[in-house]
Amino acid sequence: MSLVLLLISLAAYADDPVAAYKNSDSSESCLPNWSNRSNIAEYNQNNARGFELVRHGAAYDLVDDKGTVLYTRLYEIQPYDDDRIVARRQGKHGVIGPDGQLILDFDYHDILLSPDTSIYSVEILDGNIEGSVLIDDSGNWIYPSATKNKTAIEAATEIEVIYPIHANVDTGISYFQVEVESHEQYTDTIKNTGIIDHTGRTIVPIEYYRIDSEISCSNNKLTFMGWKSGYLTIMNELGQTIIEEQANRSVEVFNKNKSLFSLKVYEPKSKQFIGGFDYTGLITEKIVNEYGKVIIESDSVIQQLDGGSILYRFMVNNKFGLIDDEANIVIEPIFDDITNVGSFGPVIKVEKSGKQALIIYDLETDTLVPSSYYDYISTLSNHYPSNLQQLQARINVSDSTNSEPSTASGSLIKENSFVPNNITNKYDYEYDANELFTFANEGKQGLMTAHNNMLIPNNYDSITAYKRLLKVRLGSKYGLVTTVDETVLPIVYDDITEDSRIGRDSNLFMIKKEGRQGILDEFGQVVVLLRDMMIPNILNTSLEDILIFEKEGLYGLIEMKSGKQLLPAEFEHINVEHYTDYILAQKEGRYELYDRSGELVYRADDDIVKISTIDTDINLYDLVSFDPRLSVETKDKYILIKNQDDLYGLVEETSGQLILPVEYEDIQYSPTADSLKNLRDGKVTPLFLATKNDQSLLLNKLGEVLIANKKDIFNIMLYPSYIITMAEISTDKPVKDESVFKWNPTELNLSETGYKMGIIDTDGKELLSADYSMIMPYFNGDTVYIYAVKNNIAYRYDANLQLIDTKDTSELEQVLTSAWSDE
Fold first, then answer.
1. What angle do CA 198, 202, 203 make, to 5 degrees?
2. Is the pLDDT of residue 596 over 80?
3. 515 or 241, which is more confident?
4. Contact (CB, 8 A) for 492 and 511
5. 207 to 189, 192, 210, 229: CA distances (angstroms)
6. pTM of the predicted model as reported, rounded to 2 decimal places
């Protein structure tokens, strides 16, 4: 702003500040582009006069375009976009102007630039004098001024800080917040604060413990919200009170950009909530503007509609209407109720004289008006439209001798079956084109869009969303139709139900007719034809496309898509364990194991209560010569079975042979390989670690016991094909994490482990005596070493357990960890 315009604005303000305030109406930004900070690099690059800040150690020199040094030893430099610089020199701050001349000498403890380029907020600190002052660019003292009882310096020492908050680009008035430290309350220091302008004139007295400023960007108005004695007061730029909060009232911002405020009034209560109000006793709510004028008064809370709407419900004389976020009346208060409905957006339903209607936008009158009235309107919940490219044919149901649904070609559903006009208006009142609603008149239901476009006349007793279709009812019979009333299944079925028991596919549902059942997909196409069977309530299958069915009290399996019967209905119980492809079926008290094709895998001699598969794939992460992401797939497939006594056995999947009888407390798969090549190719020798009667056992694929040991724990190496024995020893030291046995050098802990270890072969022959505290293989490329630690000495062996050399354990840990990192 030029000096002439500034003087005119100030003169106008001095003559008639109210007129200057009321006449200000600008579409420009609330805050002018003043006092924007930059950095030294930006200053050097963009300075209009070619000045440059040159660094010398921790300080800078300001040099002009001719190379003349204007100022030396500048610290804490803060350049601004208008080329002013605030800097510290010899412990004091000053301001250097864009022309290199001093605006304020280096006499101040701190300096804040104000909205007006000629006004500065500074902190003084000189001996016992400390305070904040507002000064002009000549150093003249603007605020505080001397009073009858205090000098200006004494008044300044009571001010903790003065900082700029706003500049009105129309009136030329700049505003500053002043904080004065007041008193101690409990452990907190309570500060009194107020507002002054750039002339030092008091706008808001310094008597509030908190002030927030709300700026309206549409009209460049400033509103102050001040708290005092537990209540809120809202004031305008002139310091005039708009609203003062009192007992049983609360004040909130309704629309900051429009300087609108909400005033809520509550019933007096004998017992107030601490720090709040009893909102159940709300009497009225008003919307007032920055002049304190009441715009809207409601007999109840003014409630914003859901879904991001800018519309609000208000009430007058027990009737409801709508306002927008500028407090303009959109719909007069003439309705008994207004509610938000719909799943996709703020669809509005109104009620009047017991009838309901949706609000639609009238293009001719440019207003929101109610649509046709019905007995009631309800959202069609959880509906999603059909993929019209996938829905290639409709399903017709023949009432022939078998009365089974059959697939037949038919006309495609129209592309615009449920695409109403998509309307956007000045209220941003837009509905999703797929939002559908059921309506009812005289007890019959129909379907319409959010814009009152009727899709299905009210011909049905009920309409509900079902998958991608609509389930309709007439009397006690059900059928399926599209959203434009095209028949998919005729209304002849006793029930059409969604049932989570139908496999893993949640997009299937079941039809029932005359005691028979069938399965349809989400488009109404047949998956399982109507059959004389029932879906049991207590059984479930996790196998995709396979269904357990019941007939005459016995159970069987059927493949849904083909309709092929996998197991006849002759089993007392069928169970499918999760994460397996096997079916456990009980017949005449005996349990049998079937695969998903219905082939018998294993017939048990005793009860089986649980089955699971064993993961036989090998993760080579621990072998540092391999890619850590590599996993080797083996050909071994085994099924772990468990009886009611929690004892385990093992069945080979391909042969159905019982490898290990159901008599072990635990069984673990632990393969080994005789060469690195075979290990890479997945050619391993399967071994099993089992416990029985608290005895550790090593068994082979034939179920033969290779080693039995009552006290040692086995740990089988993948390669070389050795077995580490681990016997727990008595020690006062805690047993260390057994991750040291996982052969990962990044997790090395070579201290005492609480075990004594040795190496044996698969025949039980001792190869390395059991007196080591740690044994681990280490891979370096295709070369493998075996380290065994004893008494802080590491012995390095080759793959044949021939001693190569020894190392100190600290040296070993460093070598292995470094080698791992190199990999």
1. 90
2. no
3. 241
4. no
5. 14, 5, 9, 10
6. 0.53
